Amino acid sequence: MTTLERGMTLSAHGTPALQLAAVGVDLGSANTRIWAAGHATLHATYPTPAGAGRSGPVDRGRITDPKAMQGLLSGLLGERRRPLPSGMVVVACRPVGSDPRGERAMREVLTAVLEPARLLFINTVRAAAIGAAAAPGPLLIADVGAHLTEVAVLSDGIIVAAERQDVGLHDDADGPDPDAALVAAVTGLIGQVRRRPGDRRAIAAAVRGGLLLVGGGAARPRLAARIAGATGIPVRRPAAPQLAAVRGAALAASAALRHSAARP
To answer: Is this prediction's pTM over 0.85?
Structure first.
């Protein structure tokens, strides 16, 4: 049975019964990841055309080339030994501040390639908190990706404040201090989140609890320490921080699948 195929169980009559797969998808600005809960991830890094300022069909969290995105996904899934079945429950990550047009493009691409029974969206920062097994209660989280940096406060899994900046790992990557823009972005976004109206008590508690750093940026050796020094806030990283969002999306898909199964 391949990563994304439906599992087989025996019905009461001893005949095979199909179980829908729960699948998480993270279409990042440099990588695509697909994860079925309990299995390994499928991963593709976008090719970088010669002389291109961007890499691949996603720019700043938005699909800019739907045809290329469909081709990349189809090729990735085509590497499996068996064809991908229809009828999955898919949860896809979307960045903070996504607009209806961007979400519509993502829905069209994923529907064409995956043919899901249900397609749901989850904010990337919320998915990452789930995938990182963050403790309940107020949480301050920063997701540093290839083209985007997002900071949010969650309270019991609900986003109470969130900001983003179109700066990421690929910006100034060849400069003398490639981490400087990322440190400035995270620091500035934390300041914006702290000034946001809303649940001030939850925001203050989240900041006191420290920062959870996820995304590809969390894998940079010195970035966490520099953010901690610039903000005065302790910074921690989960295991495999670049996979936190797609893992969380898959877990959310599993929860949605269980909820559907429990309904009469």
So the answer is: yes
